[in-house]
Amino acid sequence: MMLAGNFYTIVASEQTPETFTVSLALNAAHPIFEGHFPGQPVVPGVCMMQTIQELLEQCLQRRLLLQKAANMKFMTMINPVAQPQVSVTLQYALQDGGLVKTSAVIRSGQTVFMKFQGTFRISG
Fold it and tell me: What global pTM score does this model have?
């Protein structure tokens, strides 16, 4: 399931050899919010994780599979009406065996919504 272009769009991005920072506009009218939850939309955790993977794939121009989620913390819910834009900061390091060690933070200003640390495997 690709979320880019439908669930979120990239507003701005900045990339260095080890960091990718992206500003996203969330689509509060996306059908997923009709079930999660009617009248009180909340970005599902699985969508946050999928967004991190898609952004890392775009950054590296490679397909990835989640190998290990060492630490995943959902700090605050994202209401796409109240927070129509969020920023995602990815720090990554390529490792032997086609692994990509990654840490990510999804936030809006000082509010942190999710923190992730884990490893992806390059799959293609």
Answer: 0.95
Separation between Cα atoms, residue 1 and residue 94, nearest integer Å: 25
Question: What's the chain's Rg over C-alpha atoms?
Answer: 14
Omega before 120 cis (within 30°)?
no
Residues belonging to the chain = 124
Mean pLDDT of 105-113: 97
Look at residues 15, 22, 104 and name the one whose alpha carbon lies nearest to residue 60. Answer: 15
CATH of domain 8-122: 3.10.129.10
Q: What is the dihedral of CA 76, 35, 2, 121, to 10 degrees?
A: 50
Residues 44-56 have pLDDT tens digits of 999 999 999 999 9
Distance between CA atoms of 22 and 13, rounded to whole angstroms? 4
Task: Identify the burial level of 121 via C-beta atoms within 10 angstroms of its C-beta, where 0-12 means exposed, 13-18 middle and 19 or more buried.
Answer: middle
Mean of pLDDT over the chain: 95
Residue 67 pLDDT greater than 90, yes or no: yes
Annotated domain spans of the chain: 8-122
